[in-house]
Specification:
Blueprint (H helix, E strand, L loop, with lengths): L5 E4 L8 H14 L5 E4 L5 H5 L10 E4 L6 H11 L3 E4 L6 H8 L3 E6 L3 H17 L11 E9 L4 H12 L4 E7 L3 H6 L5 H4 L4 H16 L10
Parallel strand pairs: 1-4, 1-5, 2-3, 2-4, 5-6, 6-7
Helix pairs in contact: 1-9
Bound molecules: adenosine-5'-diphosphate and magnesium ion.
The site of magnesium ion (MG) has 6 residues, from helix 1.
């Protein structure tokens, strides 16, 4: 199924699951016989540092570029040969994230069930709204979607946050990334669930997320009619 070509993971909150999701989506697309690439635009380089070209995720091209001046060129170059290009960003708002978001077909905003994560997710969504008023994206708005991470599914708090965001008019995906110990276990090695076992619960969460995105957002980033 066609996916948005450039997917930028962004929220000004550290620890929301951006890097885990970046790796996990890239692993998912690799096992789905696509040619994903990652731009690590976080100055901490948590993905680039742990990437092993000889490991099971070695076929994924990873480029570290935390610079606001060059990140757009890095994304464009990778997009010539790769699909999708997934961009991981810093755990705070910076100019590099803005430059990357301007290139996005989809900005994916992860949030844990916590007040700080919600505040930052909303701030990022509003920032994308502002970018959509700039000449670069006027008439060609960036699509932004929120996704809940590290959830205990079907808990009251998760349902409550979902409802609050929906009531506020924020687009929150149905797919949820549950809290699972496999993420921190694998992230130490720079790996992600789908590469280890495509049938695991975590891999299925990621596959569900990818499917929902491809149903809702076209390759050009346009939201499909419901
Ligand atoms: N769904 C999840 N379940 C359990 N732990 C997770 C999950 N997603 C991420 N983590 C862990 O939480 C920590 C923060 O996640 P990370 O992806 O690094 O966040 P960010 O990149 O937004 O700062 C990491 O140790 C990561 O392995
Ligand atoms: Mg990170």
């Amino acid at each position: 199924m066609p996916m948005p070509k450039v997917i930028v993971l962004a929220t000004g909150k550290g620890g929301a699951g951006k890097s885990a999701l970046t790796r996990s989506l890239a692993a998912h697309f690799l096992t789905a016989k696509q040619k994903p690439a990652i731009v690590d635009a976080d100055p901490q380089m948590s993905i680039a540092r742990l990437h092993d070209p000889d490991g099971p995720m070695g076929q994924i091209t990873v480029m570290a570029d935390p610079e606001a001046e060059t990140v757009q060129t890095s994304i464009t170059e990778l997009a010539e040969k790769h699909q999708p290009v997934i961009v991981d960003t810093a755990g705070f708002r910076n100019q590099t994230t803005i430059m990357a978001a301007i290139m996005a077909d989809l900005v994916l905003i992860p949030l844990k069930p916590s007040a700080e994560d919600i505040t930052e997710a909303v701030a990022m969504y509003d920032l994308i709204g502002e970018l959509n008023q700039t000449p670069e994206r006027k008439g060609r708005p960036i699509t932004a979607l929120m996704v809940m991470t590290m959830t205990t599914p079907n808990t009251v708090i998760v349902r409550h946050i979902r409802k609050e965001l929906e009531n506020g008019g924020y687009p929150i995906l149905d797919a949820e990334i549950a809290q699972r110990v496999i993420y921190p276990e694998l992230s130490i090695k720079g790996l992600a669930p789908s590469i280890i076992d495509g049938d695991s619960a975590a891999s299925r969460d990621i596959a569900r997320l990818a499917t929902e995105i491809s149903k809702k957002v076209g390759a050009n980033g346009r939201v499909k009619a419901a």
